[in-house]
């Protein structure tokens, strides 16, 4: 079973890139972030035409998450992250597919920091941690994947000294990610590639992709029931170089 996550950075504007990648890479399940489309504008038919059923949580202009599946319609179990009824951002959707619970998330960026946006990021992180703790109590395999907007260590960022005050790399953000992982989650990429330089995002500015001046901010966290079945993982780095592509590359894992 091949599962991928991809911050598509506008599902309609980059639809040709998404469809090409789906056909070439052929993952079984895909989690998308940053749809930048209201609920009624999601390109369901185009995605169905290449073999994927979908559920999605849209929002006009920004945010938005979706789960695509080759196994038929995903069984939705959660829409929106619990814990704050006033939070209307479309940043979390969860489904059961093949007896695996898959949470697709788009964690807030948080810049500028400090400030209200950073406070929201940390509060959202805490809500995610509380929800994740509940998921760990069950015996079902669980995957939490998406754009976490955090570089966990200096190994995950090109020239870390330039990022010390950024919301994605501040000590509070990295501590929040560590607190989440320490519940008992496995960082899939680091499990298989503990010492490699691996990036999932390259800015559009200053030839970042060509210079490989990237960040690793798209992550797979696996609970113990599924971590032991992890077989392979990688980043489809070349997709970032396609014309009119997202500034993220798809990340994937394979489980037995």
UniProtKB/TrEMBL annotation:
Residues noted as binding Mg(2+) in the record, renumbered to the chain: 7, 34, 147, 149, 247-248
Keywords of the record: Hydrolase, Magnesium, Manganese, Metal-binding
CDD domains in the record: ExoIII-like_AP-endo
Annotated active site: 106, 147, 248
Residues under site feature: Interaction with DNA substrate: 248
One Pfam family hit: Exo_endo_phos
Cofactor binding annotation: Probably binds two magnesium or manganese ions per subunit.
Cofactors that this protein relies on: Mg(2+); Mn(2+)
One GO BP: DNA repair
Domain Endonuclease/exonuclease/phosphatase: 4-248
Top-level lineage group: Bacteria
Family the entry assigns: Belongs to the DNA repair enzymes AP/ExoA family.
Protein name: Exodeoxyribonuclease III
Organism: Niastella vici
